[in-house]
Specification:
alpha+beta; Adenine-n6-DNA-methyltransferase TaqI, Chain A, domain 2; 3 domains; 4-stranded antiparallel beta sheet; 16 strands; 40% helix; elongated
Length: 356
């Protein structure tokens, strides 16, 4: 995560002045570690939601303190000491950070640890930069293909079959045909989160009507968050069937001999990225797309052969992007393990330097 830099008058709460280089540690919701190295200046301020840490002992370097505050042991300690009524509003105190105990190596070793972790950080930063660039290229290319005015325009209902799931009601909580179903919480940006799939009772005729097929595209139909409205993902038989849907999702299916599932997916991704789904959504506090409005959207529908070419091109770009993201994720795991081992001295620093 990277910090948000704003004008000081945009911070409505009390503020700390950060006149010297410091390590900022978020005290809010510490289960999500947020630690930043801040360059100090006369005009630098930070919200009091952060603890502003600097060494007062000449035996500890600032770069090492930054590494220390990013360690899993430090994050776990803050989380354990946090108080609050809900997980998203828990807080730690600066005193909790100051109570952390650790082994203090010589300054020369501290510097080498900071250099090793810094080298891994540089690799991660480079991968994140590449990921952002690939994302921009992919979205631009997807937009160009989805809005090509040389292609015939049709109503979405002429290309896709639309369906909504069933409403979750108390009488469906039990029954002889308990069936897993997906809801908005399971749909992310181009991905499905199947870590928490619920069940409710669908009778055999409902199972037949609402069961998902490989290649169906699920779209989050409504949300209080504008960023979630229209978020799409493709179903690829990740779970044994039948698996159905709740009313909070739109299900789009390629019409046979007219469209292919991969084209549906990329069109839905474009409709989300361009906010075309959000533009047709109704409602004030909670926005809803509705199947009726979605059916009337415009689709530039090329031939089946061209759809396959488009899907192959965009899928290849998606694969390249996923590979870069996966490498960055792996490096973050390596960094966390390496930092932990260097701090508790289970990893020899000479071995770590050879690995980096």
């Amino acid at each position: 995560m990277t910090p948000a830099v704003e004008p000081a008058n945009g911070i409505r709460s009390h503020k700390f002045r950060v006149e010297k280089d410091s390590v900022l540690v978020s005290m809010l919701n510490p289960r999500i570690p947020r630690v930043w190295f801040a360059q100090g200046s006369r005009n630098a301020l930070a919200s009091t939601e952060f603890a502003v840490l600097r060494p007062i002992d000449l035996r500890i370097g600032l770069a090492f303190l930054y590494c220390l505050c990013r360690s899993s042991n430090f994050a776990s300690m803050l989380d354990e000491r946090s108080t609050g009524t809900t997980g998203s509003r828990k807080r730690s105190k600066a005193a909790d950070a100051l109570a952390f105990t650790f082994s203090l190596p010589p300054l020369s070793v501290q510097e080498r640890i900071a250099e090793i972790i810094g080298a891994v950080d540089d690799e991660i930063t480079a991968l994140d930069t590449e990921s952002r660039a690939l994302t921009m290229v992919l979205r631009r290319r997807r937009a160009d293909l989805a809005t090509d005015d040389s292609i015939e325009a049709v109503r979405a209902e002429q290309a896709f079959d639309f369906s909504t799931g069933v409403r979750r009601t108390p009488d469906r909580a039990t029954g002889p045909y308990m069936t897993p179903y997906l809801r908005s919480a399971n749909v992310g940006y181009g991905t499905l989160d199947l870590s928490d799939v619920l069940e409710m009772n669908y009778d055999p005729s409902e199972r037949k009507k609402f069961a998902l097929r490989y290649g169906d595209v699920l779209v989050s139909e409504g949300s209080a968050s504008a960023n979630a409205v229209g978020m799409p993902a493709m179903w690829r038989d990740e779970l044994p069937g039948p698996v159905c849907t709740q009313m909070t999702l739109l299900r789009l299916r390629a019409l046979e001999e007219i469209c292919i599932p991969e084209f549906v997916f990329h069109w839905c991704m474009w409709a989300y990225e361009s906010r075309a789904f959000l533009d047709i959504a109704g409602g004030t506090n909670i926005k809803h797309i509705s199947a009726k409005r979605a059916k009337g959207m415009t689709v530039r529908l090329p031939s089946l052969d061209r759809q396959r070419e488009i899907a192959a091109e965009l899928d290849a770009m998606e694969s390249a992007l996923k590979a870069v993201r996966a490498e960055a994720t792996h490096l973050r795991e390596v960094r966390a393990s390496l930092l932990s081992g260097l701090l508790d001295r289970t990893i020899d620093i000479e071995s770590a330097e050879l690995g980096v």
